[in-house]
Amino acid sequence: LAVMRLTKPTLFTNIPVTCEERDLPGNLFNQLMKDDPSTVKGAETLMLGEMLTLPQNFGNIFLGETFSSYISVHNDSNQVVKDILVKADLQTSSQRLNLSASSAAVAELKPDCCIDDVIHHEVKEIGTHILVCAVSYTTQTGEKMYFRKFFKFQVLKPLDVKTKFYNAETDEVFLEAQIQNITTSPMFMEKVSLEPSMMYNVAELNTVDTAGESESTFGARTYLQPMDTRQYLYCLKPKQEFAEKAGVIKGVTVIGKLDIVWKTNLGERGRLQTSQLQRMAPGYGDVRLSLETIPDTVNLEEPFDITCKITNCSERTMDLVLEMCNTNSIHWCGVSGRQLGKLHPSSSLHLALTLLSSVQGLQSVSGLRLTDTFLKRTYEYDDIAQVCVVSSEVKQS
């Protein structure tokens, strides 16, 4: 019984040895490199050669890759054996998988003949794997024989994936995925996508539009060198049917999962899919105030309008009163202490407000107070947003 791993060949690498023409060897080293059949013509100083070399060892197996093995049973005797059954199982820390292509026995095997089988398995666990190959057969005298061999190998982790979440005021969630290549060879990142949960739509922020065409922010060749890290950014927006229900989105922690596809060496493909990514759900308290519209830049001492959205995140009905408190730079226009009426659980109302700034620069919109008359509880909202205040243009006569 012979068991061999099937891997693709690798490109031959040579170490270039050069020197300047004024050195003692002169042009000898450069000429030797040009005459070397393994080098790339015109680029002899590159380590990458034009020849392929067969694998010299078992090599590394990484999570997400496909493990392929060639199994051969050869009859070394001078007798015909019958009812040969070859079975290949893969034992992991959690399960035992049958990898045999066929479970039927071969009727007979003549001397110096062999039975060949190729098995494939997509590796989905890290750690120790044991390939168990068992052979059973019957001799000419009718005696049943059985033997097996064990082949142990380790499955390594190819990528290190870290995630960060940023919760925006508009119910949007920004996901930053940091992907690091922890193998010893470069990878071609074929696809890195986010499959959102049922409550969200996702927008990739890893491309830019150039002359009407979408181009990756990482360039045309998305290679990831060993130990290099790359950041991918995604924006998740709640679907319309869920965005209107403040209580539902507030409790959502499952965002989705990352699907990563890469290629190594000569096109060997690997794929990883993370488990469901979870974020820490933001706590909005009983009443949430968010800004729907606000200008980026306003003129000094000139009124400007903003639109606020007030959402009842509690499980009780509120009767709200709005108070507007001036700060050193922000002055509210309108009547303070007005009634907003009753607001039922998970419902919202939009509020148009006018204010002006008396100080230039980046100013913070602050000073809103909401009071629930039922419980006599006041909610304070400061540093809601920032606005840039510039001097108004002087009209030329």
Automatic annotation (TrEMBL):
Residue span(s) of domain Trafficking protein particle complex subunit 13 C-terminal: 295-389
Q: Where is the signal peptide?
A: none
Q: What Pfam families does the record tag this protein with? A: TRAPPC13_C, TRAPPC13_M, TRAPPC13_N
One CC-aspect GO term:
TRAPPIII protein complex
**Trafficking protein particle complex subunit 13 middle domain residues:** 159-282
What range(s) does the Trafficking protein particle complex subunit 13 N-terminal domain occupy?
2-155
Q: What is said about its interaction partners and assembly?
A: Part of the multisubunit TRAPP (transport protein particle) complex.
Q: Which family does it belong to?
A: Belongs to the TRAPPC13 family.
This one is known as Trafficking protein particle complex subunit 13
